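ARCHIVE CARD
CATEGORY: sequence design from structure
SOURCE FIELD: tokenized fold
FIELD CONTENT:
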């Protein structure tokens, strides 16, 4: 094979020489000038390798062909003949490695050098080009364009970092000398890598890529941490062959895997959304630019605070500098927070139980059950104390002991070897993270060996003025005080729903339950698990951090993979460290894992229960992301409820209403409240009642209806009270439900919430009321285009066996029956709102006023069509309408949303008195609603002597309701405009005609309604639901 590349050489000499002349030119002049006869062959390089003069008589290319096989000379600094032969040709090679590579090797996927990955290069840069050797492309043009020869050699970065010229080949510079002082990639720290392994004569990068060592390529890439996360990802087998850092880079756009326990990609992208939008890898951005800009890489590390502590590192990467110093310095990872010393009152609904110390021993799961005691013995003089209590464990048990010095370890070993009944393991750990880090960091691996665990320690707290001894004695007594107590606790933990059992707060400590300086750290820890903790969240904790738990209950905490450097250095702090935060977070993590927690007190402090009984004894106060449901992330009104069981058996009627203050609501709200109060009165003393606001919290000035009182959702449920609670903040706390709670839903999303509540009732009580009451005031799917929201609303109508429908008007019921949604249901024939009717002044003369019912937020009220219509009306006959006023009422909005006419005056939302006065004076009104519900405004205005134009819909024909109402079926702008003009002329011909208009139905007008008969029938069906539930 002739290695001379005529086209390549012609491009170098820039002369129109023939093929034979080109070869002669090379021999006579080109070689001595250092011109290469082929991109694969570098004469200057080869001359140095073979100790031949470049300007001598020897044709170096011929010399290579003649001697290349025998001596395995390298023809180019990037073609390693020996390495190629060893890897692809074997010991008995009969062909020069370069010739083999050119003729067949590159097509077979062979690499010319361990730092040039041909197939990877082809896939990245030549994916749409066939028949070209990737190495050839790199030599000819790729390196000048910044193409990378492998994932860990960043040509652009290397050239800029080390000020190379555009003509320099960066990879050659690195291989032949640069690697001693230069890094090949911003994520590969050569010196750091060398500090862990002996690279022998290889460059650090070549050693890393070819030896698959477990050494970390830089201090902010943790191989073990990455591999642990990657196991759960569907990474292709091809990528799995790569070293870990290469895997991280290659799959970065497909999977989110953190490179280090102190670098969170999710957090970084959330904080700095511009980065993700630009398609830049989070770690790559941080190393190149973000660190210098002071961007925060993790919720638990604050670079600005690190720079405050070490101003001399201001131009360095703060995370790298912190990790270098964290093991042996006082560097703090976070700024201490100002303590919040406000008392966090424990809810009155909190359950505290007492385990019986006498009587038969509870049944304990002994088969294959293993108990782990995590004991941090900082003070070795208390080793005997710990042994005494841990010997009360009668189950198979291992004691995992941590201490901070070898001397203490020896003392502890002597005591436990002599006196302990159980196996034990001792580990010497850093004095960092108090008693918490030793358990969740140093003994993380031991969690997998335990079915149940208890955490204890020997801390002496000089900051507690009452002396720690009494508190410590209390906690040991309440956790390990006797074999019977231990058995009761383990029996309780064996319940599938229970994840933790802790003593009630030591009496002198209970008044000190507060966030202190820990809320931010608690919130950050939980946010990394996808959960949200707020200042208003219920705070309860195993104070003193001594408690029993299932290891699975702390899985989300363990999955954070906290290391010692996450924790604050030990400085005798009394508050505000990560250890203090985790103590406050234990129950949150337990709930996030799907478990309840049990608090037990001393005899007489709570309800005595049988640990193996069926009675609910657990607590849950933290609505998790799972509890609140996925739908809320698109539609907040659909936030689910965390339901907790109430022990009260008395039936209760619950109103699910978007808001309770009628001054902020519309007619549908008033109707829902009216039905609820009428039904509550008819049910009498056999029922309690509760109003749950689902969307809008009531204000401080809200005064509930007579007989009702405002209570916290967290208060203990008490029989015999009618209450109002704020369910709009259900993301902060649970709602307590009784087995016999009957729900009255008033809108589709409140019905969706009710269905979720009933599902939880079934799980909590093994039974639930057969049905819920559903006040249907429209076909609410139609409020939205065909969409997810349409379908979600529609599904609330698809449970006829669980629903007692209450239709607002028989017109609406007929629509549902016609469309085969329901075949039965109660019907409310509403009467006019007396609070409106009392403000109608029938003696007032009518004026040239056209009222427009305008609600921009409700598409069904057709504001754009109203705007077009008034424009069409006034421009078609400007003389007739010149002295008329067009007044928009119903909802406050900016007049600028109107695009067609300036004739409309916006009055917005009116008081009932203002509405009554304006309706009394108006001659005409236009009130549109594209839905099967008749809508109250046309009827209210007709009742006030107004001539009203509205629209038909399906089976709805409003002209059948009152003389003053005319309706149209087609939204033809010209035709409807003529109808408005006709209505105006009708009134002008007889200004008193509206006052003479008569009702055509036996309801609404003159206050007529069937509500008494309807409520009576509804009350009977409601009572029957309780009777069925009891049976």
């Amino acid at each position: 094979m002739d290695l001379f590349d005529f086209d390549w050489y012609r491009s170098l000499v820039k002369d129109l020489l023939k093929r034979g002349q080109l070869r002669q030119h090379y021999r006579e002049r080109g070689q001595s000038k250092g011109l290469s006869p082929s991109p694969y062959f570098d004469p200057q390089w080869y001359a140095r390798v073979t100790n031949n003069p470049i300007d001598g008589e020897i044709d170096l290319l011929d010399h290579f062909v003649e001697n290349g096989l025998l001596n395995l000379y390298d023809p180019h600094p990037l073609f390693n003949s020996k390495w190629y032969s060893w890897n692809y040709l074997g010991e008995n090679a009969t062909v020069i490695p370069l010739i083999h590579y050119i003729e067949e090797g590159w097509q077979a996927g062979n690499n010319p050098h361990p730092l040039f990955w041909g197939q990877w290069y082809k896939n990245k840069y030549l994916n749409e080009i066939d028949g070209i050797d990737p190495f050839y492309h790199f030599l000819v043009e790729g390196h000048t364009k910044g193409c990378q020869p492998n994932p860990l050699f960043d040509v652009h970065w290397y050239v800029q970092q080390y000020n190379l010229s555009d003509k320099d080949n960066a990879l050659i510079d690195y291989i032949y000398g640069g690697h001693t002082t230069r890094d090949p990639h911003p994520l590969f720290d050569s010196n750091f890598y060398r500090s862990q392994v002996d690279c022998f004569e290889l460059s650090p990068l070549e050693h890393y890529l070819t030896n698959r060592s477990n050494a970390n390529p830089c201090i902010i890439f943790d191989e073990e941490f990455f591999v642990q996360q990657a196991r759960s990802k569907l990474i292709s087998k091809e990528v799995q062959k790569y070293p870990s850092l290469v895997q991280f880079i290659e799959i970065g756009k497909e999977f989110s895997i953190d490179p280090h326990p102190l670098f969170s990609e999710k957090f970084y992208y959330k904080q700095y959304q511009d980065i993700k939008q630009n398609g830049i890898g989070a770690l790559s951005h941080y190393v190149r630019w973000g660190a210098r800009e002071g961007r925060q890489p993790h919720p638990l590390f604050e670079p600005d605070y690190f720079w405050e502590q070490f101003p001399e590192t201001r131009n360095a990467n703060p995370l790298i500098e912190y990790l270098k110093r964290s093991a042996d310095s006082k560097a703090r990872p976070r700024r201490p927070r100002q303590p919040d010393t406000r008392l966090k009152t424990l809810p009155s609904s909190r359950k505290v139980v007492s385990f019986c110390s006498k009587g038969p021993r509870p049944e304990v799961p002994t088969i294959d059950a293993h108990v782990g005691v995590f004991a941090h013995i900082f003070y070795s003089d208390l080793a005997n104390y710990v042994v005494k209590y841990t010997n009360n464990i009668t189950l198979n048990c291992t004691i995992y002991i941590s201490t901070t010095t070898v001397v203490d370890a020896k003392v502890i070993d002597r005591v436990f070897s002599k006196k302990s009944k159980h196996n034990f393991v001792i580990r010497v750990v850093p004095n960092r993270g108090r008693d918490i880090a030793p358990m969740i960091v140093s003994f993380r691996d031991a969690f997998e060996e335990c079915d149940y665990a208890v955490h204890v320690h020997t801390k002496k707290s000089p900051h507690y003025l009452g002396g720690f001894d009494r508190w410590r004695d209390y906690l040991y007594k309440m956790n390990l005080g006797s074999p019977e107590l231990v058995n009761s606790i383990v029996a309780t933990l064996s319940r599938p729903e229970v994840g933790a059992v802790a003593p009630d707060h030591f009496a002198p400590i209970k008044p000190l339950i507060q966030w202190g300086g820990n809320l931010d750290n608690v919130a950050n820890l939980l946010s990394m698990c996808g959960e949200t903790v707020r200042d208003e969240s219920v705070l309860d904790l195993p104070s003193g951090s001594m408690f029993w738990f299932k290891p699975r209950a702390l899985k989300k905490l363990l999955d954070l993979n906290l290391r010692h450097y996450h924790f604050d250095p030990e400085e005798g702090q009394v508050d505000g460290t990560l250890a203090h935060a985790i103590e406050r977070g234990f129950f949150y993590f337990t709930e996030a894992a799907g478990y309840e927690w049990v608090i037990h007190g001393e005899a007489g402090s709570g309800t005595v229960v049988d640990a193996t009984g069926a009675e609910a004894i657990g607590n849950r106060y933290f609505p998790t992301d799972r509890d609140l449901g996925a739908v809320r992330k698109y539609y907040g009104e659909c936030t689910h409820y965390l339901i907790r069981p109430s022990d009260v058996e008395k039936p209760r009627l619950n109103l699910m209403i978007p808001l309770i203050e009628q001054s902020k609501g519309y007619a549908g709200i008033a109707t829902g409240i009216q039905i609820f109060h009428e039904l509550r009165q008819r049910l009498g003393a056999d029922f309690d009642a509760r109003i749950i606001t689902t969307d809008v919290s009531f204000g401080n000035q809200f005064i509930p209806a007579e007989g009702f009182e405002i209570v916290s959702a967290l208060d203990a449920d008490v029989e015999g009270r009618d209450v109002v609670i704020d369910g709009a903040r259900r993301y902060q706390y649970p709602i307590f439900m009784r087995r016999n709670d009957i729900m009255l839903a008033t809108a589709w999303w409140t019905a969706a919430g009710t269905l979720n509540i009933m599902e939880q009732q079934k799980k909590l009580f093994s039974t639930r009321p057969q049905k819920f009451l559903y006040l249907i005031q429209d076909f609410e799917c139609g409020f939205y285009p065909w969409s997810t929201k349409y379908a979600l609303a529609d599904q609330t109508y698809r449970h006829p066996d669980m629903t007692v429908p209450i239709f607002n008007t028989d017109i609406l019921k007929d629509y549902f029956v016609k469309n085969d949604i329901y075949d039965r249901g109660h019907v409310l024939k509403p009467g006019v709102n007396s609070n409106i009717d009392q403000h109608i002044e029938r003696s007032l003369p009518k004026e040239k006023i056209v009222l427009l019912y305008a609600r921009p937020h409700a598409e069904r009220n057709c504001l754009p069509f109203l705007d077009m219509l008034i424009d069409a009306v006034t421009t078609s006959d400007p003389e007739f309408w010149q002295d008329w006023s067009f007044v928009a009422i119903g909802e406050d909005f900016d007049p600028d949303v109107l695009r067609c006419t300036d004739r409309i005056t916006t009055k917005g939302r009116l008081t009932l008195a203002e509405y009554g006065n304006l309706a009394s004076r108006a001659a005409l009104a236009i009130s549109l609603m594209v839905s099967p519900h008749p809508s109250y405004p046309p009827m209210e205005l007709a009742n006030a002597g107004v001539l009203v134009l509205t629209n038909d819909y399906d089976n709805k024909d409003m002209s059948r309701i009152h003389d003053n109402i005319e309706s149209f079926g087609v939204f033809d702008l010209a035709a409807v405009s003529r109808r408005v003009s006709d209505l105006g002329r009708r009134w002008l011909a007889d200004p008193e005609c509206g006052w003479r208009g008569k009702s055509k139905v036996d309801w609404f007008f003159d206050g007529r309604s069937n509500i008494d008969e309807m409520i009576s029938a509804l009350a009977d069906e409601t009572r029957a639901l309780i009777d069925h539930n009891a049976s």
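CARD ANNOTATION: Residues 51 and 455 are 72 Å apart (CA to CA). The mean pLDDT is 93.
SHELF: design records, drawer C
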